[in-house]
Amino acid sequence: MTNKIIDEIVFQKNILAENLSEDEKKEIDIYLEELFKELSPVMEVFNNLENSEEFKKSVASSFKSEIKEQKWLEKLSKTFYDQAGIQDPGSIQVE
Questions:
Q1: For a disulfide at 86, which of 15, 36, 56, 81, Cβ 3.0-4.6 Å?
Q2: 36 lies in which domain range?
Q3: Mean pLDDT across the chain
């Protein structure tokens, strides 16, 4: 994933640099070098997470829990609106 991010940044830089002078291109390269140095720790964390089975299981579990919660909330809302006799919840006007 991080290689894709870096590749995309370089690709965009190359498009941008097509009509620039050599000095301007060097300035962009210096800026990107500093950017990559700053992003390096973040990219390392992403790589570690991306390759971690424990992390993937944790994300999957959180996602499943969130889906269950959302379904429960939808059922609760539907029950409330049905009991209140509201056909279209969007038609409720708040003052």
A1: 81
A2: 1-51
A3: 85
